[in-house]
Amino acid sequence: MILDAFSLQGKVAVVTGCDTGLGQGMAVGLAEAGCDIVGTADLRKIDAIPELLERAVAEFGKIDILVNNAGLIRREDAINFSEQDWDDVMNLNIKSVFFMSQAAAKHFIAQGNGGKIINIASMLSFQGGIRVPSYTASKSGVMGVTRLLANEWAQHNINVNAIAPGYMATNNTQQLRADEERSAAILERIPAGRWGLPSDLMGPVVFLASSASDYINGYTVAVDGGWLAR
């Protein structure tokens, strides 16, 4: 039965930044599909990543899925953007994504059963945006690295894909949603006519984490209510 291909019963998923917002929604969706969830928060120290995944394997016996969701945004005109705001965002949004993926892939290869890596990209993987230079650079990087890792690791039965959420009702967009004029302009362009919700990512993340997506590799799926289609 095709629905069996979507089951994640007995799988172990590591989800970064899953304490709130989109990460929480995806973690809940994966759990409802049968996953045990390993949640992580602070990824500012790259050196801690291998130990983090080793602890997950020690506790659950394996890992099958990695969702690189943890992210940060800083808003300022490009002309005034600081080096600190650049580095903080780039370190979390792209550097940690690469090294988390690298560490997970080593476990997947050692386990011999392949694995699934799902990176969280953005509309700004496709567009420039305004007042978020490091966020745009990092999310463009996420889409590129997703393709690169898919090319290298498909031979190990590791699928690497990404989800690009549209304008979602989360902490990251609180400032935009509080600006009535900006919020109205955004909603006017979204064919679905509403801000996205964390629950809107449950189906896509379960699909990309399941065997139903075994022949999908290196692709970034937009979940945007039609924003990019306009």
The gist of it:
42% of the residues lie in helices and 14% in strands. With 230 residues, it is α/β, with parallel strands linked by helices.
Key descriptive features of the protein:
6 strands, six-stranded parallel β-sheet, 42% helix, alpha/beta, 230 residues
Description of the structure:
Helix 1 packs across helix 7 (202-209) and helix 3 runs parallel beside helix 4. The model has no long low-confidence stretch (mean pLDDT 96). A 6-stranded parallel beta sheet has the order 2-1-3-4-5-6, with helices on both faces. The longest helix is centred in the middle third of the chain and has 29 residues, at 83-111. The chain starts with 11 loop residues before the first strand and ends in a 7-residue tail after the last strand. The chain has 7 helices and 6 strands, in the order E-H-E-H-E-H-E-H-E-H-H-H-E. It has 230 residues and is α/β, with parallel strands linked by helices. It has helices spanning 21-32, 49-60, 83-111, 133-153, 174-178, 180-189, 202-209; strands spanning 12-16, 36-40, 65-68, 115-120, 158-165, 220-223.
